[in-house]
């Protein structure tokens, strides 16, 4: 048996998210079906993050065990050919042999997300479903100030979905930066792990501030209240991208 | 009657290009139909460039005359609502009142294109149809050197489609730059006007050089030969984007 580490890119539009679901297509199901087609083995693919419906990945890390011998390159090529044939907007960017104790989820010590916003009146064409369109200009400095209150170790109860299954609401946010490039705003977040909906909840609060509906200090007040009721609302899944997973060494 | 200048973004996938065609959907037809729906007027929309099938625009400039009074903002909003309703991946980014002597095509003194390449083995997901996937690394310095031979005033017969209707093959290429950003390569071209297929022909020759199949000096040799037979082949339309039109003042 050999363990492989895969780096995947996927377009979340029309998908139920990473995890296998009874009621619709998922990334996990598509990749497991492609693996079965090329190896005849019914396997489980484990990923660094389980993204929600409509969320994308530019570099999701996953691992899988296979008995049939493949070189990493042949595995990547065969999987991509099969995924393409199946019409899936999923691609394997890299495949490599992994140690038997490597686990895409449990070995992961850092996760990075990007949230993409386009500020304009016109509907999105190329980025429909891939970014959040905000029809008014955003105050980037206010958003950056709001973001600064969230960086560090905090109880993120206010930024957590009611369905979150994490044992503790305390997380350490290593990075939350806001960058404007023309009419685009990118928010980058990095942490060892995130609570369910945490990034979308934080972005929702930052955009609220960016639109001038609340001062940046309100972000701190929401955090300190530990009360999800105070949150102005989540950002939609469209703009959320899983951009990287970090492992020891 | 009032003349409006429009800045349009469109996704060329599935379209026959800018110009109205009997055998398939075009940008011109979609915009003229939307204009008819909101004004009841059968008008002709003129554009700075007539992009081919499968070619995209991030900022195409066009003009149209309407009798029914609209403010530019209401025209943009109504057109976008209608285009969206029709399922067109076309958006009006800007609308403004134009002088009666402004003509999107004939007043235009500069056109800019971008050609997008992604160097990787894996099939494209997000950028399928929006970039040219080249499965091997490109030698950017060789491509830049090849490009330098094309900048300036030359007879571009070798880089011209047999269907080109321009009176003269002599054009002045103001810019042809090659930039690598990670696994992406962007080639930017700027000129007063281009011959039919000129950008795709130039990119085809540069990629040939970038793959090491010919030295950069071959680009000059092809140019000087004034013989299209020497051209290694056009780049596909997928990666071509019309990115801007320049007007006096």
TL;DR of this structure?
Two copies of one chain form a homodimer. The first copy, chain A, is built from five helices and ten strands.
Structure description:
The structure is a homodimer of 249-residue chains. Chain A is α+β, with helices and mostly antiparallel strands and 249 residues long. Chain A has two domains: 2-98, Alpha-Beta Plaits (2-Layer Sandwich); 110-246, 2-Layer Sandwich (Alpha-Beta Plaits), CATH 3.30.70. Helices cover 23% and strands 30% of the residues of chain A. Chain A has helices spanning 27-39, 72-85, 140-148, 198-210, 217-225, and strands at residues 2-10, 46-47, 56-66, 90-98, 110-119, 132-134, 152-155, 170-181, 184-191, 240-246. In chain A, strands 1, 2, 3, 4, 5, 6, 7, 8, 9 and 10 form a ten-stranded mixed beta sheet that branches. The first copy, chain A, is globular and about 60 Å long. The A-B interface holds A 9-11, 56, 76-77, 80, 83-84, 89-93, 120-126, 128, 130 and B 9-11, 56, 76-77, 80, 83-84, 89-93, 120-126, 128, 130.
């Amino acid at each position: 048996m050999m363990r492989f580490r895969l780096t995947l890119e996927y377009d979340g539009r029309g998908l139920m998210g990473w995890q296998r679901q009874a009621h619709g297509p998922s990334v996990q199901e598509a990749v497991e079906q492609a693996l079965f087609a090329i190896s005849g083995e019914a396997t489980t693919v484990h990923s660094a993050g389980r993204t929600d419906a409509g969320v994308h990945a530019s570099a999701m890390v996953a691992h899988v065990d296979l008995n049939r011998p493949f070189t990493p390159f042949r595995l990547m090529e065969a999987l991509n050919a099969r995924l393409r044939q199946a019409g899936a907007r999923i691609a394997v960017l890299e495949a490599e042999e992994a140690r038997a104790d490597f686990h895409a989820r449990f070995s992961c010590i850092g996760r990075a997300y990007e949230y993409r916003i386009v500020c304009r009146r016109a509907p999105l064409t190329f980025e429909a479903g891939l970014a959040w369109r905000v029809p008014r200009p955003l105050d980037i400095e206010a958003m950056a100030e709001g973001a600064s209150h969230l960086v560090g170790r905090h109880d993120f109860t206010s930024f957590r979905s009611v369905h979150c299954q994490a044992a503790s609401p305390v997380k350490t946010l290593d990075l939350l930066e806001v960058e404007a490039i023309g009419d685009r705003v990118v928010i980058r977040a990095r942490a060892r792990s995130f609570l369910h909906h945490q990034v979308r909840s934080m972005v929702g609060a930052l955009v609220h501030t960016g639109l001038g509906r609340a001062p940046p200090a309100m972000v701190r007040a929401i955090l300190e209240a530990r009360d999800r009721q105070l949150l102005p609302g989540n950002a939609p899944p469209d703009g959320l991208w899983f951009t990287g997973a970090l492992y020891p060494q």
